[in-house]
TrEMBL record, chain A:
<protein>
    <submittedName>
        <fullName>Uncharacterized protein</fullName>
    </submittedName>
</protein>
From TrEMBL, chain B:
<protein>
    <recommendedName>
        <fullName>DUF6895 domain-containing protein</fullName>
    </recommendedName>
</protein>
<dbReference type="Pfam" id="PF21836">
    <property type="entry name" value="DUF6895"/>
</dbReference>
<feature type="domain" description="DUF6895">
    <location>
        <begin position="13"/>
        <end position="296"/>
    </location>
</feature>
<dbReference type="InterPro" id="IPR054190">
    <property type="entry name" value="DUF6895"/>
</dbReference>
Amino acid sequence: MEQPSASTRLAGAVRDLASEVVSALRGGDHPGVVCAPAGIVEDDKLGIAAVRVLGADVLLPSIMSRRRPEGLDVRILRQALTAFPPGADASRATAWSHWAMARSLRALDPPVPHPADDEPDASWLDTAPWQALTHQVSLLAALAVPGGDCGVLRALTRRPHDVARGFVRAVRRRDWLQAAGAGRWLAVLDDVPPSLGLDTGLEFIQHMDGADPRVALHVSAAQLLRAGDPR
Amino acid sequence: MRDVRLTHDVGLKALTWLHAHRDGFRLEPAAEAGGSFLERFKPVGELALICKVLFREGVAGSRQAELARQLLDHAWREVLDGGRALVVGQRREPLSPVPFETYVPFRELGYGEPELERAIRINHRLGSWAALEVSPVRRLGVCTFERRYGMTPSTPLPEAAARTWLARTPEPWTVEGHIGYDITHTVFHLTDWGESPRGLPDEVADYLALWLPVWLDDWTDLRRWDLLGELLVVDACLPYPSLDEAAWTALAGAQSPDGSMPVSGADGEAAGGSDGGNEAFDLLYHPTLVAAFASALATSRAMSGLAPERA
């Protein structure tokens, strides 16, 4: 039998990890504990890479429940942050997701020290066409957390209708992951048009592709943000 | 939209093709009742509605106005036999609204058929006419035509409008092709085919201003030119039309060199060529008419400086 490729194994590890985040968000067996039930241990290269892909969302269950995260999750997130620094030619999405991981560590009580990077540039979000805007920020949905002020949020606060249009576009095109990410942003924005039907839209996305744990993660986060309004 | 010539030329080319292929507007007298005899009125009625828009908007230029007048005369005299064909249709299916709907724009343009008018008056008094089970957007259309004709709408217009999909302003991400056509036709009826943009209730206009850009983007990428053309008509009916450059450029690019517009896909060749007889005509006439319609309205709005209200 052929060995699965590295990318296939990484995708599988990301799915497993996302499943644990969803389970923890929904108050499953391990509330606030993510890496251990996903089988990830310290110095586990594949696991650390998976944590880098999911980024700050590894700590999302503890942020949403306002609990101190489990020590292993924090240590592995730190390892991922150190192991995959953004290169000079990193994409905007990569720079921002790296910054989000560092922010989530610094926000802990007590904070986990990490060099405070400057916020990456977000000015391009002011001029991006709404289609590209939504595509890009859906990749950065891990930044959409309670109290998560940052340049991306400030830019989107000025363009809620454009994000809503991008949400419609993504649902129409059956791009469920993008739709879920955009929906999560809309859950933290004011002035979302009521005619969008965000709540039924989130349910629809969950129904159509909730089997993908990355989709379920964003939908669950959005629904918790909508229900708790912890902004 | 920076280039008004683009929208104008799409319409001129479309009308030129329709004129050259006017024999495609034809009836099938041998068809049985309930068959295609009344169905063949639909293209003729649409032609009259859109030629009326061309005259009304006054941006067509003398060449287009001449083509439109010749097309109308041909449709009335040759296809409808001076209106007699509508009478025959009404006798075959007395309760059908189709002959009435086809007749209204011709009557507004000065054509007349007294016997049909008697049938219309009798029909309008029937409880069955008002009770006919048709879709909400179709009911709205019949009622607006009744108003245009000078009769009391068989369902009060606000009530007929409120029953449509669009009036409820539902989730915009649920829109697919059929709903798209329901939206466009609701706008056509509410605005008297673009004549009265103020016929759109504010709530509906706001809803469309918000979500129409998404649908234009989608149906441009899907290369569904027929529905895209209708959505561009809707755009031109809004208080502040976008005259979406990407959509118009794509539509113009899809138009065949001879002026015909394919329903979808790459070009008219996909439909078997625009000289492929009645079968090809039946595929091409509607998107081509819609292109002429969208062109007339968009050109007019562009030239009036995007004024929110027309005089």
